[in-house]
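Figure S4 source data
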Amino acid sequence: MTNEICGSGGEWLADGAANAFKHMSWAALLGIRFDYKTAKGFLDRHEDYPGAQDDPARVMDTWNNMVGLDIGVDLWRQGYRDAFHPAAWDAVKWSVRYAIGNNWHDQLVPGPGTRPK
């Protein structure tokens, strides 16, 4: 699915736009399907692995998860209730593409104490 939208070539393995798309989309769908606390719990546990505290990719993934979760919660407020419905998936794809197109996936300043720009 990511290759269909972002292209192939393994970019999805790196910390690029395709990886951001995967994180944001999954988080958005969880935000539609579950309440905020439950969805955030899934996402946080997914990013909790040995050595995670020292992994800069984790910070970026967590940021992308939060952008995606905000998208999902917003879509839920707009009336999307079934994360598996094609209209919900279309809304997620459009919203995530918008976020990536505006470089929201790249809004971190690298280094100690990494934070949104």
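Figure S5 source data
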Amino acid sequence: MESPVVLPSAALVLVSSPTPPSPVTIIVKPGGPYVVQGSVAIRDREGNALQPPLPKVPGTVKLCACGHSKTHPFCDGTHKTLRDASVPTTPSPADR
């Protein structure tokens, strides 16, 4: 099994699902969410499985990158309203 990918800002561990292996792609949307495409299990720090909301695109999960989602760790679109308020929605290099 591959090593999990840890996203410290969201305190998440992404682990590929055990059934059939498929490539997983993570796309960082500037000013938006992390878009995870592929079969993944999302767990909290304690290892509990988290159930993502139903996606618009099957096999896709959107993770919050702005830190203000009410459904954290999943994106609820809050970043769209923050852009108007000039609040950074992606970490600066100093924050990484």
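Residues 5-95 form one domain. The beta strands are 5-7, 12-16, 25-28, 34-37, 40-43, 60-63.
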